[in-house]
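Let us work through a complete example step by step.
Step 1: write down the sequence.
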Amino acid sequence: MEFQRPKIGLIHATMNSVQSILSAFQQHAPDAVLVNFMDESLIFELNERKVITNDMIRRLVELISKAERSGVDGILLTCSSFTPCVEQIRDLFDKPLLSADMSMLEKAAEIGNRIAVIATVEAAGPTTEGLLKQAAAEKEKEVEIKTVVIYEAFKALQDGRKEEHDRIILEQIKQLESHSDVIVLAQFSMARVMEQENDFRVPVLTSPEISVKAIMDEVEKSAANRLEEGQSV
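Step 2: predict the structure and record it as tokens.
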């Protein structure tokens, strides 16, 4: 039986995350068909309110519902700031739904005990730290987490000053690497700094590559389950 190309719905809350995930799919899952769904007002409102509201969750659910109705095989939320919502809404959908960063955070918890988190959106910092603690607890591991939020890097990227964005983040990595076992870049938009040649002392993790592999694995498992149940793929 010949399988159709898997179709993945990408849920974005900022344009800054788009290119990084498209590049990651091109490199690691080039056969995937990508369908993008965007509500950029979500990240602006989150930066203002500093907390995820019920209205934001409803709008996120609407986006994911549109993706599912379009016939996608799996759905990936690319904005790590909204990762805490995924567990509470996952059961509303029939298709696999993953957040961008959980696989990356589980890997970080495996690598070391001293974990540094760099974020450029204020809400993403504590969100990522909380999820890291959760991932470590599930592995029965104690970790020491240092979180740094550099909003000026986000502002530079929003204003089109990409080189400045990258420089600020790279400088922060250099400051943290001597005191860390692993460094986590909390958002998709930050992955662009890894396109440059860098000689880091410790692993620096970004979520695009890891999340692409994770959602493709989930889609494959879902297809296999449907085959066992006698459904069409």
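Step 3: interpret the result. The domain at 7-100+209-228 is CATH 3.40.50.1860 (Rossmann fold).
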